[in-house]
Design a protein that fits this description.
It is a single chain. The chain has 440 residues and is mainly alpha-helical. A 4-stranded antiparallel beta sheet has the order 2-1-3-4, with no helix packed on it. A hairpin with a 2-residue loop joins strand 3 and strand 4. It is built from 10 helices and 4 strands, in the order ααααααααββαββα. The protein has 2 domains: 4-311, ABC transporter type 1, transmembrane domain (ABC transporter transmembrane region fold), CATH 1.20.1560; 332-439, no CATH class. Residues 344-375 have low confidence and may be disordered. Helix 3 packs across helix 8 (298-311).
């Protein structure tokens, strides 16, 4: 449930070491808080004067303030780290967008890219500021408390130890279900973003064609589907919270029952029993916080995963093999066996009809299917252009006309890297050439 790429973020190791030290200190502050609170309560139960329990009360307050101070410093430190990291990620994403160009934007969608750069960064900042402290607290605090409880009463320690894996199991099951639903919800969110941007860009065209009302109904249906998916995520999150609260409350009640029986039978004394009862909720607190924050940060987790994928998107550097080239009436462009397809494609057909001096037979290709967005597949496309001609590329919507134009402009790179193009006898693998694009 934790993306391993998180640990490759800048200064992640330093941050984790800092958090580990803070959590160890916080665990001992929790122990001191519970111990001296129990001693003060036992002293009051025995009707000791305040002067005798004043030291215990003072030490309780010191450990309490220490714990709150650690929490404040941890939140400040993690907010600072999250803001610095998201600023760096935003800059890397912008640089990647400029490097990837149309190929990258076509893959992830304009609306999705804009939303990731704006709202997505806030979600990621919240995710980073919460997930690391909760994860480190879960790995350290319960076990320090458990070791101390074992020194006081082995039976209570075994009850706590046996319930903990059960909570982990239920959290994994429900967390997996929540992650699956959240992923579908996020996909719907991405679709809604891209559709909204497309609607804004084509609003005037939709009105001219009389399709505005029909397109509005499509937007309404997609927004309703997104709402239903969001409610599904909330149902799983609420069920997970109920499960954690139920089992933690049940285990604490069992411990209280055994401690009460031991006190009645005279097998236990009040002070260690009270310490165990005070520390038991603290033992379960990290896993409850982790479970609640896990659901609260799912969107941030999905947004960060998408940014990692975008940053790993392969880009083709611009070349300068045509530095002395100028297109004129005698210039020729020959393209052989061009092939290209986007990562996510839909069912469609691709047709190229030759017009003017474009050569090659009609190509029909069957598209693959996906739930993301429509894109085109080009395979074995051949072109032979000379001079300043007027050339028409004809095909239905989604056939690949824009994709072919982007390849010819050098914005997209064909899959086969060798001998795709020949310009005035010079062989090129791709048209992402500085001088070529300047003339285009």
């Amino acid at each position: 449930m934790i993306d391993k790429r998180l640990f490759k973020l800048p200064k992640a190791k330093i941050m984790l070491a800092m958090l580990a030290g803070l959590m160890f200190l916080q665990a001992f502050a929790i122990l001191g808080q519970g111990i001296f609170l129990a001693r003060a309560i036992v002293g009051s139960w025995k009707r000791q004067p305040f002067t005798e329990i004043a030291q215990d009360v003072l030490l309780f307050l010191i450990f309490y303030l220490l714990r709150q101070g650690i929490n404040w410093f941890q939140k400040w430190y993690m907010n600072r780290y999250a803001n610095q990291t998201t600023t760096l990620l935003r800059q890397q994403l912008l640089n990647k967008t400029y490097d990837g160009g149309i190929a990258l934007v076509s893959r992830i969608g304009t609306g999705n890219l804009v939303s990731t750069l704006l709202d997505g960064m806030d979600e990621i900042s919240n995710y980073l500021s919460l997930i690391f402290p909760k994860l480190i607290a879960l790995a350290i605090v319960p076990w320090v408390i458990l070791i101390y409880i074992f020194t006081l009463n082995a039976l209570s320690g075994w009850i706590l130890l046996l319930v903990f894996p059960l909570l982990i199991l239920f959290m994994i099951i429900l967390g997996t279900a929540a992650q699956s639903k959240a992923t579908k919800q996020y996909a719907g969110y991405v679709k809604l973003q891209n559709q909204f941007v497309d609607a804004l860009r084509g609003l005037s065209t939709l009105k001219v064609l009389g399709l505005a009302r029909r397109y509005g109904n499509i937007v309404y249906k997609n927004s309703e589907n997104y709402r239903k998916k969001t409610m599904g995520v909330l149902r799983v999150a609420i069920l997970s919270t109920f499960t954690l609260d139920f089992f933690t409350t049940l285990s604490i009640a069992m411990i209280a029952m055994f401690l009460g029986i031991g006190l009645i039978n005279g097998n236990l004394i009040l002070y260690p029993s009270l310490v165990i009862l005070i520390l038991s909720p603290e033992y379960f607190l990290p896993i409850r916080d982790f479970g609640n924050d896990f659901h609260a940060t799912l969107n941030g987790k999905n947004a960060l995963g998408q940014i990692f994928d975008i940053l790993a998107f392969p880009t083709t550097p611009q070349e300068d093999q045509l530095s002395s080239f100028t297109w004129n009436n005698d210039s020729t462009l020959v393209a052989k066996n061009l092939s290209f397809n986007y990562s996510h494609v839909d069912q469609s057909k691709f047709t190229v009809n030759k017009n003017a001096k474009m050569s090659g037979v009609v190509k029909k290709k069957t598209m693959h299917k996906t739930s993301q967005h429509t894109a085109d597949e080009l395979r074995n496309i051949n072109l032979n252009l000379t001079g300043f001609q007027k050339v028409g590329i004809i095909g239905p919507t989604g056939a690949g006309k824009t994709t072919l134009m982007r390849i010819l402009a050098g914005f997209l790179t064909p899959h086969l890297k060798d001998d795709n193009f020949t310009i005035n006898g010079q062989t090129l693998a791709q048209l992402n050439q500085k001088n070529w694009q300047n003339q285009i």
